[in-house]
Design goal:
The complex is a heterotrimer of chains A (123), B (527) and C (457). With 123 residues, chain A is an alpha+beta fold. Chain A is 20% helix and 37% strand. Chain A has 4 helices and 9 strands; from the N terminus they run βββαβββββααβα. In chain A, the strands form 2 sheets. Chain A has a 6-stranded antiparallel β-sheet. Chain A has a 3-stranded antiparallel β-sheet with strand order 4-6-7. Chain B has 527 residues and is α/β, with parallel strands linked by helices. Chain B has a domain of 132 residues: Aspartate Aminotransferase, domain 1. The longest helix of chain B has 37 residues. Chain C contains 14 helices and 13 strands. In chain C, helix 5 packs parallel to helix 11, helix 6 packs across helix 7 and helix 11 crosses helix 14. Classes of the chains: A alpha+beta (123), B alpha/beta (527), C alpha/beta (457). Chains in contact: A-B, A-C, B-C. At the A-B interface, helix 1, strand 6 and strand 7 of A face helix 13 of B.
C-alpha cells in the first residue's frame, strides 16, 4: 500500500487498482470543525481533477477533487451521520470514497509523504 | 481544497461565572439582568386557543371547500395583544441597530433611516393600492415610479432603468440577463464573464446562474483591477466584466473608462456593481465611465431600512445598448397618462425584453422611501452625502493607521470605507476577536474577512450620517480593542462578555440543524 | 440638510487630521473628466419635510385607495386587515434599522423571530422545515423548480395551468438561461377538460417536478394526493404554490397531501398591498432536502454559557461562500415583512387563523351566490376558498374599467392576466376577504347587473 498526496490536500492510498481517498490532517485543520460531507455515489465516473465530494465547515465549503481518474466504488456513509470523523481521524476513519483507477500512471504526478510534508511546510 | 473564510464558530467554554466584582457569583432567580430580559418562544408562551384579534362571528353556511377541510391541528400558538407587543419588544432589545449607534459594516452602507420615509410609504394612496388595480386608478403610483426612475437615470447619467428587481443580487441578475439577451440578439453567444478577485460573492454566483463560466482577474498590489491582465484575457468568448466601483477594497478604479473601452472594443459589455454608489453619488455619474448596467441598492445609498435582512430593492440603470432588453413590467408615459407595459404582446417595436423577474412591479414600498430620501437631499445634498461619507472613512483610516495595518493606505485616500488587515496582532488573535471586542464596546463589528484579497480583512464604512463626536468615540474603542489584540489580552478571546449571548456554537447548529420548534414531548420521543 | 451632522468647522478639522487641503483631494482617483464640478443642475436641490409631504400627498391623491371603495381584487395579492400593533412593532428601530443577523450575539431579537417565523410557516404549509423567507411568491416558485432540478438531476418541470401567469412568466424567463424545460398550458373556462387527468398524463421519467397552485389562479381547490403519488412513482417532486396563506386556516395543507416543496406568497398576513411589493416569499420542504434549499436558515444552538440561542446556519450553501457554486444568487430575504407576517400570525394564533379563514370563505360564498344570480353570469370555479372566477357574457376587461369608473374595484379580468389567449376574455377573478362588507357586495352586484343589462348606473 502506498499513500500519495495532492497539492489540494487530498490523500490517496493505493493497493493495485483500488484506492481510498480522503483529505489530509493539514486540510481538516484549516477547515476547522467539519459539519457536512457529501460523498460521491458508487459507479460515478471521475476524471482527474473533477469535483468528487464536498466538505463543509461552519463558514467554509470546499470541493474535494478526484486525485486521479477512475470509477467510484464506495462513499463513506459514516460521514453522513458523523462528519466530525473528518476532524478526529482524517487519514483513517474519515476517508471520503473508494475508487477503481483507470490509469495508475497518473499517480506518478502526485507527491509522496515526504514531498507533501515539505509542501505544507512552505505554506 | 480551495478554502475560503476560515473564521470558526465554536466557542470556548467560560470557566465559572464572569460576574464577579467582589469574588461572589452574581445571579438572579429569573436569569434576567435588570433590563436585559430573556424571552421564551411564542410556542412556549401561547396556546392554540389564544387569539389577540377580534374576528366577526359568521352564520354557518354550506361550505364549498369540497371536503378539503383542515381537521388536523396546525400547531400554531397565539398570544393576546398585550403579550404580543411585549414579546416582540423584549426581543427587539436584543438587537443592535443603526438607531442605537454607529454601524461600521463595510459595503453595507448602514446609514440613518429617516422616519419621514416611513411616513410617506404609509400614505394610504401608496400603501393600500393593489398591483392589479386598473391602470387609471393608480396613476399617482406610476408617476412616482417614473419620477424615481428620472432621478436614478440623471444621478447615474444613464438613459434607462429597470425598476422591478427586488434586491441587489436580483438587480445583478437583471443586468447580466440583459447582457446575455443583447449578445444573443446579435447572434454572438459568448461564454465567459470576467470578475475581479476582490468581487462580492454574489457576482460569480449571478454570472454562473446566467449560464456563464466565471474567470477571475487578478488585482494589482495597489488593490485595483490589473488592467493589463484584463486586456490580455479579453477576446471573442468574453461576454463582459462585472466590476465593483468603488471596489470592495474601498478604492476608486481610476482606469474604469479605459476598462470599459477595452471591453467594448472586444465586443463585450460592462456590468458595474453599484453596491458602493454611496461614495460617488452626486459627484460622479457612472454613465460617464462607459458602463452598460449597474444596480443601485436603494437600501444602501438611498436609505431604505435594512429591516434585519431585507426587503431590499435593486433597480438597474441601463445603457442604450441594453435598454431594449429591460425586463417587464415597465412604465411608459404618453401625454399625461402613465401606462404599465405588462406583457410582451403589447410591446412597442423597440423592445426586446428578456422577460419578467417578479410577479408584480417591484418594491413600491421601497420606491416611496427612496424618493422621499432623495427629494429631501436634492442634488446639492446628495453631493454632500458622498463627500461626507468619504471624509468620514478617511478620517477613520488616518486615525487608525498608526495602530492597524492599512494595506492600501499608502497609495492615497480611500473612498467611503477604510480597509485594514490583521497584520501585527498577537499570536492566536485574529479579526474575529476584534469584532467581538467591539461588541462589548457597544458597536456592531465591521465587515470581517472580506474582501478575500486582504488577510483577516476589516472593512469599516461609517457613512455620512455619523457626527465627528460619534466617530471619535468609535475610534477610541476601535484603538482600544486593537491594542488589546496586539498585546494578547486573553479576555478578548472570550468576548463578547456583555452581550445578550456569549459566543454561540455554530458548529453544533450546522451539524444537527434544528430549524423549527418541536413540542418537548415529541422531541423526547424522537430521541 | 437635516440628515448630515457634520459642520463646516468639523469638516475642516477632519481634513486637517487626514492631511489634505480640500475634499477634492480625497477624490483624486476619479479621472478629471468624470468629476462633476457642482450639484447636478438638471435636478432640484434639497427639500424640507413639509415640501416632501406635500408632493407625496399630491401623488397619492391620484390613486384610488383600496380601503375606500368596494374592493374585490386578488389574483396573487389580498387585502386583509392588519392589526395596529403589527405596524408598531415593525417600526421599532431595533428591528427596522438592524442588519442581517450575522453577529448572533447582538441579533438574537431578529434570529429568534426568524426561528418562530420558520416554525409558523412550516406548520401552516405542512412541511418539516421552512427558510427565513425569500423575495416573494414568484421568486420562491422559481427557486423551488431550480431546487427540484438539483435534487432529481432532471430538467423538465410541468406547470399546471392553475399557476399564476406571472409566476409562470418568471419561471420561463429564468428557464431560458438555465436550460430547464417547462411544460406549461393555459386554463380554460369551459370546464370540459379534465385538468388533473392531463397533468397526470404528462408526468414521465424526464419530469423533475410538477408545480400546482393551491388555491389556483381561478380560485379552485383540488386534492393533490393523486398528483403526489404519480410524481413519486416517477421520482419527480410535487411543488405546491400557495398565494393566499389565509386559506391554510380552512383547508388541508399541501404538505399533508404529500407535497415535497411548498412555496408561497406571505403578503396576505401582516404585509399589506403596497402596489406589489415588498412582499415575503414562503419556502418550506421535507427535511431530507434541507441542504438543497435556497435562502437563509436560522437554527437553534447554545452559547458558551449553555444558554439557548439562535444563529444563521448552513450558510455554506449561500453565494458569499459558494460563489459560482451557490444554490442561488439571492442574498437578502425579506426580513421585515417576515416579521410583519410573524407578528400578525402570533396575534391570530391557530384559533384566529381558522376563524379568519372561515369569515373569508363565508363572505366569498355569499358574494358568489349573489353575483351568479345575475343573468348571464356563470360560475367557473368548482370548490373554492375566498376567490372564484365568473364567466361574463362579454369581455371582462371593459367591465372592470366601467366598474372602476364608478369607484368599484371589481376583480381582475383574465384578459389582463392572459392577454394573448382566446377564450379567456370573459373571465373575471373575484376575491372576497373579511374586509368586504355586505353592502359592498350589493353595490358591486347592482353595478355589474346594470352594466351587463346595457344600462348606466
Amino acid at each position: 500500500m502506498i499513500r500519495y498526496f495532492t497539492e489540494d490536500h487530498e490523500w490517496i492510498e493505493v493497493e493495485e487498482e483500488e484506492a481510498t481517498v480522503g483529505i489530509t490532517d493539514y486540510a481538516q485543520g484549516q477547515l476547522g470543525d467539519v459539519v457536512f460531507v457529501e460523498t460521491p455515489a458508487a459507479e460515478t465516473i471521475l476524471a482527474k481533477g473533477d469535483d468528487a465530494a464536498v466538505v463543509e465547515s461552519v463558514k467554509a465549503a470546499s470541493d474535494v477533487y478526484a486525485p486521479v481518474s477512475g470509477e467510484v466504488t464506495d462513499g463513506n456513509e459514516a460521514l453522513v451521520d458523523d462528519p466530525a470523523l473528518v476532524n478526529s481521524d482524517p487519514e483513517g476513519e474519515g476517508w471520503f470514497f473508494k475508487m477503481k483507477l483507470t490509469d495508475t500512471s497518473e499517480l506518478n504526478a502526485l507527491m509522496d509523504e515526504d514531498a507533501y510534508k515539505e509542501f505544507i511546510a512552505d505554506l | 481544497m480551495n478554502q475560503r473564510d476560515l473564521n470558526q464558530g465554536r466557542p470556548s467554554r467560560i470557566e465559572g461565572d464572569i460576574d464577579t466584582t467582589n469574588g461572589r457569583k452574581l445571579s438572579t432567580f429569573s436569569g434576567n439582568k435588570a433590563l436585559m430580559l430573556d424571552e421564551p418562544l411564542i410556542f412556549e408562551l401561547g396556546s392554540r386557543e389564544t387569539c389577540g384579534v377580534d374576528i366577526d362571528v359568521m352564520e354557518p353556511i354550506e361550505s364549498r371547500l369540497g371536503g378539503l377541510e383542515r381537521h388536523q391541528p396546525i400547531g400554531l400558538a397565539g398570544l393576546s395583544e398585550s403579550e404580543t407587543v411585549r414579546h416582540y419588544t423584549r426581543l427587539s432589545r436584543q438587537n443592535y441597530a443603526i438607531d442605537l449607534g454607529l454601524f461600521p459594516l463595510g459595503s453595507c452602507t448602514m446609514k440613518h433611516n429617516p422616519r419621514l420615509n416611513e411616513k410617506m410609504a404609509r400614505i394610504a394612496g401608496f400603501a393600500d393600492i393593489h398591483p392589479m388595480q386598473p391602470i387609471s386608478t393608480v396613476q399617482g403610483a406610476l408617476e412616482l415610479i417614473d419620477e424615481l426612475a428620472h432621478w436614478l437615470k440623471t444621478l447615474t447619467g444613464m438613459p434607462a432603468v429597470a425598476m422591478s428587481p427586488k434586491a441587489g443580487a436580483h438587480g445583478e441578475l437583471c443586468g447580466i440577463l440583459a447582457i446575455r439577451a443583447a449578445l444573443e440578439a446579435r447572434g454572438d453567444a459568448r461564454e465567459v464573464i470576467l470578475v475581479p478577485e476582490s468581487a462580492h460573492g454574489t457576482n460569480p454566483a449571478t454570472a454562473a446562474f446566467a449560464g456563464y463560466r466565471v474567470e477571475e482577474i487578478p488585482a494589482t498590489e495597489g488593490g485595483r483591477v490589473d488592467v493589463e491582465a484584463l486586456a490580455a484575457r479579453l477576446g471573442p468568448d468574453v461576454a463582459g466584466v462585472m466590476i465593483t466601483n468603488p471596489n470592495t477594497c474601498g478604492l476608486f478604479e481610476p482606469d474604469m473608462r479605459k476598462i470599459s473601452d477595452l471591453v467594448h472594443a472586444a465586443g463585450g459589455l460592462v456590468y458595474c456593481d453599484g453596491a458602493n454608489f454611496n461614495a460617488i453619488v452626486g459627484r460622479v455619474r457612472p454613465g460617464d465611465l462607459g458602463i452598460d448596467a449597474m444596480h443601485i441598492n436603494l437600501h444602501k445609498t438611498f436609505s431604505t431600512p435594512h429591516g434585519g435582512g431585507g426587503p431590499g430593492s435593486g433597480p438597474v440603470v441601463l445603457s442604450e445598448a441594453l435598454a431594449p432588453y429591460a425586463p417587464l413590467p415597465y412604465v411608459t408615459k404618453s401625454s399625461d397618462f402613465f401606462q404599465l407595459v405588462e406583457e410582451e404582446q403589447s410591446l412597442s417595436e423597440d423592445s426586446d425584453t428578456f422577460g419578467r423577474m417578479t410577479a408584480f412591479h417591484g418594491q413600491m414600498g421601497m420606491f416611496t422611501r427612496a424618493l422621499s430620501y432623495i427629494m429631501s437631499h436634492g442634488a446639492d445634498g446628495l453631493k454632500q452625502v458622498s463627500e461626507d461619507a468619504v471624509l468620514n472613512a478617511n478620517y477613520i483610516l488616518r486615525s487608525m493607521d498608526d495602530v492597524l495595518d492599512a494595506p492600501f493606505g499608502h497609495s492615497g485616500p480611500c473612498m467611503h470605507e477604510a480597509l485594514f488587515s490583521d497584520k501585527g496582532l498577537a499570536d492566536g488573535f485574529s479579526t474575529i476577536n476584534i469584532s467581538k471586542g467591539l461588541i462589548d464596546e457597544g458597536y456592531h463589528p465591521m465587515t470581517m474577512y472580506f474582501p478575500l484579497v486582504v488577510h483577516g480583512a476589516m472593512l469599516v464604512e461609517p457613512t455620512e450620517t455619523e457626527s465627528k463626536h460619534a466617530l471619535d468615540n468609535f475610534i477610541g474603542s476601535f484603538r482600544h480593542v486593537v491594542n488589546q489584540a496586539k498585546e494578547g489580552d486573553q479576555s478578548l478571546l472570550q468576548a463578547p462578555h456583555f452581550a445578550p449571548r456569549a459566543r454561540l456554537d455554530e458548529t453544533a447548529a450546522a451539524r444537527r440543524p434544528i430549524l423549527v420548534w418541536n413540542e418537548p414531548e415529541t422531541a423526547q420521543a424522537a430521541e | 440638510m437635516r440628515y448630515l451632522p457634520l459642520s463646516d468647522n468639523e469638516r475642516g478639522q477632519m481634513l486637517a487630521k487626514i492631511g489634505v487641503q480640500s475634499i477634492d483631494d480625497l477624490f483624486v482617483d476619479v479621472p478629471e473628466e468624470a468629476r462633476l464640478t457642482g450639484p447636478i443642475r438638471e435636478l432640484p436641490n434639497h427639500a424640507s419635510e413639509m415640501a416632501v409631504e406635500r408632493h407625496f400627498k399630491a401623488l397619492a391623491a391620484k390613486n384610488t385607495v383600496a380601503g375606500e371603495v368596494p374592493f374585490f381584487i386578488g389574483a396573487g395579492a389580498y387585502r386583509h386587515h392588519v392589526p395596529a400593533s403589527v405596524d408598531h412593532i415593525i417600526q421599532r428601530g431595533e428591528f427596522l434599522t438592524a442588519y442581517t443577523p450575522y453577529q448572533p450575539e447582538i441579533a438574537q431579537g431578529t434570529l429568534q423571530m426568524l426561528f418562530e417565523f420558520q416554525t409558523q410557516v412550516a406548520r401552516m404549509l405542512g412541511t418539516d422545515v421552512a427558510n427565513a423567507s425569500m423575495y416573494d411568491g414568484s421568486t420562491s416558485c422559481w427557486e423551488a423548480i431550480s431546487m427540484a432540478r438539483r435534487i432529481t438531476k432532471k430538467k423538465k418541470a410541468i406547470l399546471s395551468p392553475g399557476v399564476h401567469p406571472h409566476y409562470v412568466s418568471v419561471a420561463k424567463t429564468m428557464a431560458r438561461f438555465t436550460g430547464d424545460i417547462l411544460d406549461t398550458s393555459l386554463p380554460t373556462l369551459d370546464g370540459t377538460t379534465d385538468l388533473e387527468a392531463e397533468l397526470l398524463n404528462s408526468i414521465d421519467d424526464e419530469t423533475s417536478c410538477v408545480v400546482v397552485q393551491y388555491p389556483d389562479i381561478l380560485g379552485n381547490i383540488n386534492d393533490l394526493t393523486r398528483i403526489s403519488h404519480k410524481a413519486q412513482e416517477y421520482k419527480a417532486l410535487l411543488i405546491a404554490v400557495v398565494t393566499e396563506p389565509v386559506a391554510m386556516g380552512a383547508i388541508k395543507s399541501p404538505g399533508e397531501m404529500g407535497a415535497d416543496i411548498v412555496v408561497g406568497e406571505g403578503q396576505s398576513i401582516g404585509v399589506g398591498l403596497q402596489f406589489g411589493g415588498p412582499y415575503v416569499g414562503l419556502f418550506g420542504c421535507k427535511a431530507k432536502y434541507v441542504r438543497q434549499m435556497p435562502g437563509r436558515l436560522c437554527g437553534e444552538t447554545v452559547d458558551a454559557e449553555g444558554k439557548r440561542g439562535f444563529v444563521l446556519t448552513l450558510s455554506t450553501r449561500e453565494q458569499h461562500i459558494r460563489r459560482d457554486k451557490a444554490t442561488s444568487n439571492i442574498c437578502t430575504n425579506s426580513g421585515l415583512c417576515a416579521l410583519a407576517f410573524s407578528v400578525h400570525m402570533t396575534l391570530l394564533g391557530e384559533k384566529g387563523l381558522r376563524d379568519l379563514a372561515m369569515v373569508n370563505h363565508t363572505k366569498a360564498v355569499k358574494a358568489a351566490d349573489r353575483l351568479t344570480s345575475i343573468e348571464g353570469v356563470e360560475m367557473v370555479t368548482g370548490n373554492f376558498f375566498n376567490e372564484f372566477t365568473l364567466r361574463l357574457p362579454t369581455d371582462a376587461r371593459a367591465i372592470v374599467q366601467q366598474l372602476a369608473d364608478q369607484q368599484i374595484l371589481g376583480g381582475v379580468s383574465l384578459g389582463r392576466l392572459y392577454p394573448d389567449s382566446d377564450g379567456l376574455d370573459n373571465g373575471l377573478v373575484i376575491a372576497v376577504t373579511e374586509t368586504v362588507l355586505d353592502e359592498d357586495i350589493e353595490i358591486f352586484a347592482n353595478a355589474l347587473e346594470t352594466i351587463l343589462s346595457g344600462g348606466v348606473s
